[in-house]
Design brief:
The complex is a heterodimer of chains A (507) and B (428).
Chain A: H1 2-5, H2 15-25, E1 38-40, H3 47-56, H4 61-76, E2 99-101, H5 116-124, E3 151-157, E4 160-164, H6 167-172, E5 176-179, H7 180-186, H8 188-194, H9 205-213, E6 218-222, E7 231-237, E8 248-253, E9 258-266, E10 274-276, E11 279-284, E12 289-296, E13 309-319, E14 325-332, E15 337-340, E16 343-346, E17 352-361, E18 366-369, E19 372-375, E20 381-391, E21 395-404, E22 412-422, E23 427-436, E24 442-451, H10 454-462, H11 467-483, H12 488-501
Parallel strand pairs in A: 3-7, 6-8, 7-9, 8-11, 9-12, 10-13, 11-13, 12-14, 13-15, 13-16, 14-17, 15-18, 16-19, 17-20, 18-21, 19-21, 20-22, 21-23, 22-24
Antiparallel strand pairs in A: 1-2, 3-4, 5-6
Helix pairs in contact in A: 2-11, 2-12, 3-4, 4-9, 7-8, 10-11, 11-12
Chain B: H1 5-16, H2 25-41, H3 57-60, E1 84-89, E2 92-93, E3 106-110, H4 111-114, H5 128-132, H6 140-148, E4 153-157, E5 165-170, E6 177-186, E7 191-197, E8 203-212, E9 217-223, E10 231-240, E11 245-253, E12 257-266, E13 272-282, E14 286-295, E15 301-311, E16 315-324, E17 332-341, E18 347-356, E19 362-370, H7 374-382, H8 387-403, H9 409-425
Parallel strand pairs in B: 1-5, 4-6, 5-7, 6-8, 7-9, 8-10, 9-11, 10-12, 11-13, 12-14, 13-15, 14-16, 15-17, 16-18, 17-19
Antiparallel strand pairs in B: 1-2, 3-4
Helix pairs in contact in B: 2-6, 7-8
The chains are: A alpha/beta (507), B alpha/beta (428).
Pfam family, one (chain A): SUFBD_core
Family (chain A): Belongs to the iron-sulfur cluster assembly SufBD family.
InterPro entries (chain A): Fe-S_cluster_assembly_SufBD, SUF_FeS_clus_asmbl_SufB, SUF_FeS_clus_asmbl_SufBD_core, SUF_FeS_clus_asmbl_SufBD_sf, SufBD_N
Chain lengths: 507, 428
């Protein structure tokens, strides 16, 4: 593996091939753990824990109240059971809801004060928390010309934000990019106005839970007419054992602004499953555009299905203004169980929503993921491209809703969801809901399920590739449409991921 | 788990108005078991996922809502075809209006006659396919039918009868509430064409269990009558053996509420199942096609083709599912559901599902919805075709893919003719 990692990408050598081969060499690469002294809130969920989280974040009274109300609502809610995923009952009282490195007793004022161990952690993950021109998340990228591409990073470690880079430079442009706890303290007017306005407190079981106990996350505000000068990114790392991570992300793109946001996540390899329940809310005003890309690479559990992250996430974007545009791109390769439906509410006339997804499940992973496109405004457009790949004993489900309301005249949706099965023990499922309530809108849905095409495999084998390489190549071709939608920083990593997840599935 | 109170109340209220018909031991025990299933499941309610797009309350109410009878004055459907007519008036068999029930190659009798016999071939089938079809999704209205259906037809096909059997459902009483249960067994190498037409009653609940043995063939063409206010819940439960063929087509014109469920299980290799339907709806019209096809054998083919034309606030629903079980390799599954919305108020709600546990399969589904193609319309207009005529032409073209699923040309012509008339009546 080491030898492969040292391979430099030479001119003329296909990056794809190198990445694929490199990926094939190793199993889950992010399974190590950082040894720092942690501080936990007591196990279980009670109003006191909610208050404690709020206090640790130095939150104002209204926020504490907001959380407590969410907690009360959560008690009334039932865990959803409609998804095609099967996992042992979660004991919500046997979890830590808050964990932070001990060194955060006194909040570090700048990155220089942060425990070097934490910085090392991120460096090791390929996310250097230094303000330098670099492609985040791509190993060996130092050699690649960066040409002024900058990525600002907010790094979240268990329950706290470690630090946010490029804050000063972003501030010059008027962009606010900080941890959500900081935003609650520094920009209460924005948080009060927007928090919970897209995903209401009582939206669903996990969102309500998150509203009560979210510890940190990222906050982005792009003022009117501003094109965010760099890509913003948050990297989530779960490190502590038996600890749930509940982050909350709030992105506001004011009139005519643009921002591209990347999210990455990993966790150590452990035998016991861990809970991750995040909420992402995006508000897009008139003529604004948001690109949200995720490479989800939580620990998927071992080859026997032991351990892994339960990823129960609510993500929603609200195109409030006319001509607002949102684009979700996700590459889902990690997590033992995924329950995730990034959605678009197309409220403004001529607004647009796009969803590109690759979900790859291997071994005993289960993914139930998809999107909702809710067309409310006139001339709204949406596009869904979903590719599901299932290998080993995995189950992969696309679940989606396209809803055309009576007033959404002349709207358009195109949905394509394809599934690929590798091996005879896995499953691929499609559960689309299509609701058309006016006749000037056009809705098209297409789905296919097939296995890796023998002819294509044969062709590759004939050209001297071994079988695994060939499968990775065919699969990459199958996923190309989605990968092309990813920002460059992710596209390369994602291609690599495609190969990793399929490792061992042929034979 | 205990049923929610509302569901339990609805169920008990409905059951209170029903009495189990008399019959021999085998039938009585099948009916009692069905009644127990209904109690355990409860009748469908608004909050059930499987009834997300269709309100079941009028189908489960203790008393059927009234539905005015409608005399179209048209020649009866299939009149040009030499067929064996079995007539039910408001759910009651009419010997006078029926043909002499005898046909070479089949054994055919009324359920109420079969019920009197202690030994009958239908013993192993009555309620059996319905029971199998309750998993993984519950269909309580079908269980209710098995428990309380008053009559029906039982047919055993041993040869290849030259004439199709035509069950005609006449509706003469505005408050009739009919429950009929048919059992059909197609033996090895045998073949049957079954025709059904007519509105049947103010409210109809019909279950048809069809067991097609190896190499047997079953063809089914049905229309549901023109009565505007009638309501119907129908279920077809089919089981297909090796190299068996099952082809069913339904045309629905009018009717306030229609829920047609078709539940097929392909258990023999190389079986073929096609289910198709067209519905044309105007105004207060709600039509729901719910199809569930399970592939549990190798190299089988299934096709679902559903087309809906909707206007004046009509609603079309399609819930289709292909389930490919572990080991059902070489499955070829196809599903298409399309709607043509002729005005702003109509709606189409669809849930086309795939659930696949085998890797060497090709399954696809498509679903589209939209208005009439303006470019095509313009083309026809520019060729001198009047607006109304052009619209009808395009509508018929839209329905064609489903109608073509009917193999027999004479039958297909009858259906096309009815569709043309439906469109013609709405011109102007």
């Amino acid at each position: 593996m080491t030898a492969l990692d040292e391979v430099e990408v030479k001119d003329g050598v296909d990056q794809e091939t190198v990445d694929a081969v490199r990926g094939l060499a190793g199993a889950y690469k992010y399974g190590w753990e950082t040894d720092v002294e942690m501080e936990y809130a007591p196990k279980g969920l009670t109003p006191d824990i909610v208050r404690l989280i709020s206090k640790n974040n130095d939150e104002p009274e209204w926020m504490t109240e907001w959380r407590l109300q969410a907690y009360e609502r959560w008690l009334q809610k039932e865990e959803p059971d409609w998804a095609m995923v099967d996992y042992p009952q979660i004991d919500f009282q046997d979890q830590y809801y808050y964990a932070r490195p001990k060194s955060f007793d006194q909040k570090p004022k700048s990155l220089d004060e942060v425990d070097p161990k934490l910085l090392e952690t991120y460096a090791k993950l390929g996310i250097p928390l230094k303000e330098q021109m670099i492609l985040a998340g791509v190993e060996g990228a130092e050699a690649a010309p960066a040409e002024g591409r900058k990525v600002a990073v907010d790094a979240v470690f268990d329950s706290v934000s470690v630090g946010t880079t490029f804050q000063a430079e972003l501030k010059k442009a008027g962009v606010i990019f900080c941890s959500i706890s900081e935003a609650i303290r520094e920009h209460p007017e924005l948080v009060k106005k927007y928090l919970g306005s897209v995903v209401p407190v009582n939206d669903n079981f996990y969102a309500t839970l998150n509203s009560a106990v979210f510890s940190d996350g990222s906050f982005v505000y792009v003022p009117p007419g501003v094109r965010c000068p760099m890509e913003l990114s948050t990297y989530f790392r779960i490190n502590a054992e038996n600890t749930g991570q509940f982050e909350r992300t709030l992105i506001i793109a004011d009139k005519g602004s643009y921002v591209s946001y990347l999210e990455g996540c990993t966790a150590p390899q452990r035998d016991v499953a861990q809970l991750h329940a995040a909420v992402v809310e995006i508000i897009i005003e008139e003529d604004a555009e948001v690109k949200y890309s995720t490479v989800q690479n939580w620990f998927p559990g071992d080859e026997n299905g032991k351990g892994g992250i339960y990823n129960f996430v609510t993500k929603r974007a609200d195109c409030r203004g006319d001509r607002a545009k949102v684009m979700w791109t996700q590459v889902e390769t990690g997590s033992a169980v995924t329950w995730k439906y990034p959605s678009c509410i197309l409220r403004g006339d001529d607004s647009q929503g796009e969803f590109y997804s690759i979900a790859i499940t291997n071994n005993y992973q289960q993914a139930d993921t998809g999107t909702k496109m809710i067309h409310l405004g006139k001339n709204t457009k949406s596009r869904i491209v979903s590719k599901g790949i299932s290998a080993g004993h995995a189950q992969n489900t696309y679940r989606g809703l396209v809803s055309m309301h009576p007033k959404a005249k002349n709207s358009r949706n195109y949905t394509q969801c394809d599934s690929l099965l590798i091996g005879s023990e896995c499953g691929a499922h499609t559960v689309p809901y299509i609701e058309v309530r006016n006749n000037s809108s056009r809705v098209e849905h297409e789905a296919t399920t097939s296995k890796v095409d023998d002819d294509q495999l044969f062709y590759c084998r004939q050209r001297g590739m071994d079988e695994e390489e060939a499968v990775a190549l065919v699969v990459n071709g199958f996923c190309k449409e989605v990968l092309q939608a990813l920002p460059m920083e992710f596209a390369m990593e994602a291609q690599q991921l495609v190969a990793i997840s399929l490792e061992g599935s042929v034979g | 788990m205990a049923l929610p109170q509302l569901k339990q109340d609805t169920t008990e209220a409905r059951l209170a108005g029903l009495t189990r018909p008399e019959g021999a031991g085998w039938l009585t025990s099948a009916r009692a078991a069905a009644e127990a299933r209904v109690r355990a499941m409860g009748l469908p309610g608004r909050r059930d996922e499987y009834w997300k797009y269709t309100r079941p309350d009028t189908l489960t109410a203790p008393v059927a809502p009234k539905a005015a009878t409608f005399e179209s004055g048209e020649t009866p459907l299939f009149d040009a075809i030499d067929r064996l007519r079995v007539v039910f008036v408001d759910g009651v068999f009419s010997a006078e209006e029926s043909d002499n029930i005898a046909l070479e190659g089949i054994e055919i009798e009324r359920l109420s006659d079969a019920a009197g016999r202690d030994i009958h071939w239908a013993k192993d089938l009555y309620g059996a396919l319905e029971t199998a079809g309750q998993d993984p999704v519950e269909r309580p209205l079908a269980a209710l039918n098995t428990g309380f259906a008053t009559d029906g037809v039982v047919i055993r096909v041993t040869g290849r009868p030259i004439r199709p059997v035509n069950i005609v459902y006449l509706h003469r009483d505005d408050s009739s509430d009919a429950m009929l249960h048919h059992v059909i067994r197609v033996e090895e190498g045998a073949s049957l064409t079954l025709l059904e037409n007519g509105p049947a009653a103010a409210r109809l609940n019909v279950v048809t269990e069809v067991d097609v043995a190896d190499t047997g063939a079953f063809h089914h063409v049905r229309t549901m009558g023109r009565d505007h206010e009638r309501r119907a819940a129908t279920h077809i439960f089919g089981r297909l053996g090796r190299e068996a063929t099952f082809k069913s087509f339904t045309a629905t014109m009018n009717g306030q509420l229609t829920r047609n469920e078709c539940v097929l299980e392909l258990i023999g290799d190389d079986a073929i199942a096609h289910v198709a339907g067209v519905c044309v709806g105007d105004g207060d019209f709600h039509h729901d096609d719910t199809v569930f096809i399970t592939h549990d054998a190798v190299n089988c083919e299934s096709r679902q083709v559903f087309k809906k034309v909707l206007r004046n606030g009509a609603t079309g629903v399609f819930q289709g599912k292909i389930l490919v079980k572990d080991g059902a390799q070489k499955t070829d599954g196809y599903q298409i559901s399309q709607s043509l919305l002729l005005d702003e108020d109509s709606q189409f709600l669809a849930k086309p599902e795939l659930e696949i546990y085998a890797d060497d399969v090709a399954c696809s589904h498509g679903s589209t919805s939209g208005a009439i193609d303006e470019t095509a319309l313009f083309y026809l207009r520019s060729r001198g075709v009047a607006q109304a005529e052009a619209t009808d032409l395009l509508t018929l073209a839209f329905l064609a893919e489903a109608v073509e699923e009917i193999e027999d040309e004479a039958l297909r012509d009858e259906i096309v003719n009815r569709l043309e008339h439906w469109l013609l009546r709405r011109r102007g």
